[in-house]
């Protein structure tokens, strides 16, 4: 049905590495692979296998769970997007670490895979949206700081020169042309 690989950390694994919970849900116990260092695993590549046909209105969703925390959606693959490299933004472990039966060892981190309705999912790649959001915030902050250096105050209003946006944009473009690393700094 599907396979996963942790870039630079594992060989490809198929569905047999996961515990099947029911017809549409699988869990991978991260203790099996990395023990308590699960948060060092920052990406997963998930892919549909050639002989598996996922219905066009369904998606194979990826979730992560730190010990004691709820599952967090990371992204999905579909028939039209049969593979994806997804970031794993592990949440902080929950305050109430649940304990398993008799041995009282903390529950480990998990990766969950689920077949779901495509229409019910927020976005197929949550990490990409977060990167875009962070970049937009940093560009906006850069503009604000530039404008602030030219502002005057009139009561409760800031007064800025009429051409301030043109000046900022020209400076922004010139800097990006001179220094290829400049824009990369906004994407971090």
Automatic annotation (TrEMBL):
A Gene Ontology biological process annotation? Answer: protein import into nucleus
Gene Ontology CC, one term: nucleus
Q: Which domain of life is it from?
A: Eukaryota
GO MF, one annotated term:
nuclear import signal receptor activity
**Per the database record, which ranges form the Hikeshi-like N-terminal domain?**
18-121
Every copy of the Hikeshi-like C-terminal domain together lies at 132-184
Record-stated family: Belongs to the OPI10 family.
Name of the molecule in the record? Hikeshi-like domain-containing protein
Q: What organism, scientifically named, is this protein from?
A: Trapa natans (Water chestnut)
């Amino acid at each position: 049905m599907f396979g996963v690989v942790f870039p630079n950390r594992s060989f490809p694994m198929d569905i047999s590495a996961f515990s099947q919970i029911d017809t549409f849900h699988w869990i991978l116990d991260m203790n099996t692979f990395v023990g308590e260092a699960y948060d060092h695993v920052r990406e997963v590549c998930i892919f549909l296998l050639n002989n598996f046909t996922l219905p066009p209105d369904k998606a194979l969703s990826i979730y992560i769970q730190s010990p004691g925390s709820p599952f967090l959606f990371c992204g999905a693959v579909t028939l039209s997007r049969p593979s994806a490299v997804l970031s794993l933004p592990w949440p902080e472990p929950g305050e109430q670490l649940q304990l398993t039966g008799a041995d009282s060892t903390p529950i480990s981190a998990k990766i969950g895979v689920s077949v779901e309705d495509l229409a019910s999912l927020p976005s197929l790649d949550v990490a990409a949206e977060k990167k875009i959001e962070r970049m937009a915030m940093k560009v906006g902050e850069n503009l604000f700081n530039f404008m602030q250096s030219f502002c005057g105050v009139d009561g409760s209003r800031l007064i800025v020169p009429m051409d301030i946006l043109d000046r900022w944009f020209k400076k922004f473009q010139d800097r990006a042309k001179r220094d290829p690393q400049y824009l990369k700094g906004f994407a971090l």
